[in-house]
Design brief:
CATH topology of the largest domain: D-amino Acid Aminotransferase, Chain A, domain 1
Order of helices and strands: EEEEEHEEEEHEEHHEEEEHH
Structural class: alpha+beta
Strand content: 25-35%
Helix content: 25-40%
CATH architecture of the largest domain: 2-Layer Sandwich
Number of domains: 2
Distance between the termini: 23 Å
CATH superfamily of the largest domain: ATP-grasp fold, B domain
Number of strands: 15
Largest sheet: 5 strands, antiparallel
Length: about 240
């Protein structure tokens, strides 16, 4: 598979065109950002760690019947993915209160949420990713009601699979974001699943082992990512 021009450069990943019109190469960089790009640093081993972590999680989900875009690990920092037509919203599932939901609703951090909450956010750095509902998505043409129902159902199914995986590793899956896109008309899971896009706490100590270590200046960011990978059996 030949890697061609860079089509997209996000905060921590780049997407490249290939000689196959149905596939892209996704490159994980060492760049790390928070607060919509207001805090940026380079963290050694981050691209490698997140690429391997994402591939491991995506394959676990695929084994559980979730359609995913990741196909092959090409190198320590690159993977082959299906070319998707992305839906411009993020799906957020929360099992425990943390982050923005605490600020919005005045609830304390660490509340078990039963049932888990589900939210849609428009993917837009310029607008600070505002929360949207089903009506916005349909009315503005970002997706159909069928798309909405599929994304919600898949998000909850993913929650069941990953909560169990992390629980067995002594971890709490606090919350996470997902993105979906269409491949040959079918909605499938796109983007990535890594500690950059979820919150993971140690079950006993509640130590944070995710990107909040970077956001909050706690240090040991990549060491925490690598600890999570080791616990769940992800080879790095």
């Amino acid at each position: 598979m030949e890697k061609k021009r860079e089509l997209y450069r996000g905060k921590a990943k780049s997407v490249y065109e290939t000689d196959d019109p149905n596939h892209y190469i996704m490159l994980f960089r060492d760049d790390t950002s928070a607060f919509n790009g207001k805090k940026i640093e380079q963290l050694d081993r981050k691209g490698r760690t997140n690429n391997h972590f994402n591939f491991f999680i995506m394959k676990k989900l695929e084994e559980a019947g979730i359609p995913v875009h990741v196909e092959e690990l090409l190198s320590d920092t690159e993977c082959l993915v299906k070319k998707l037509e992305m839906v411009p919203v993020e799906c957020v599932v929360r099992n425990v209160s943390a982050g923005s939901i605490c600020k919005r609703y005045g609830v304390k951090e660490g509340l078990d949420l039963n049932p888990p909450t589900f939210e849609f956010f428009l993917k837009s750095d310029a607008l600070d990713d505002p929360m949207v509902n089903d009506s916005h998505i349909v009315s503005f043409g970002w997706g159909t009601q069928e798309d909405i129902d599929t994304m919600r159902n898949l998000s909850y199914k993913i929650n069941e699979v990953l909560k169990d995986l992390f629980d067995k590793a002594g971890l709490i899956l606090v919350d996470y974001k997902l993105e979906f896109g269409k491949y040959n008309g079918q909605l499938i899971l796109g983007d990535e699943f890594s500690p950059d896009g979820c919150r993971l706490w140690d079950k006993e100590t509640r130590k944070k082992l995710d990107k909040d270590r970077f956001r909050q200046g706690l240090g040991g960011v990549i060491e925490a990512y690598e600890e999570v990978a080791r616990r769940i059996g992800c080879p790095l």
